[in-house]
């Protein structure tokens, strides 16, 4: 977490968005301010006790494993537009919502997620990273379409 703290001090991100229960809990324990958190009450696809991460607003969305539903797009967008700390509680799986968070977050934000058995990954949101994430989404099956 020290490297993440240093990165935040250096980058001064507009928003910090966390994806995943373990990374969200670790950021919270280390007093790193999160604007939006996307969690599913699972770690390594196993149910866990809900983490203790406070939020002023909680949004709920269904998003089956291996998919990005139109409702998930909309819910992540709503979370990022809030002026208060927002938790997106996913019924299903939140992993692929990292892509959505990068695409929808304001420039100079950080999207932070956990890489199991590896550590933490931080993506700085830029026009280039948004394009990369969109290319990944474009290779997915049509059910992943962004709502119009």
Short note summarizing the structure:
The protein is an alpha/beta fold and 148 residues long.
3D architecture notes:
By secondary structure, the chain is α/β, with parallel strands linked by helices. The chain has one domain. Helix content is 34%, strand content 26%. The chain has helices at 2-11, 21-29, 70-81, 97-104, 127-138; strands spanning 16-19, 36-39, 42-43, 46-47, 57-63, 86-92, 110-115, 119-124. It has a 6-stranded mixed sheet, with helices on both faces. Strands 3-4 form a two-stranded antiparallel ribbon. β3 and β4 form a beta hairpin. α3 (70-81) packs across α4 and α4 (97-104) runs antiparallel to α5 (127-138). It is globular and about 40 Å long.
Percentage of residues assigned to helices? 25-40%
Shape type: globular
What summary fits the major beta sheet?
Answer: 6 strands, mixed
> Radius of gyration over alpha carbons?
14 Å
Structural class: alpha/beta
Average the pLDDT over all residues and give the rounded result.
92
Kindly, what is the distance between the CA atoms of the first and last residues, rounded to a whole number of angstroms? 38 Å
Number of strands: 8
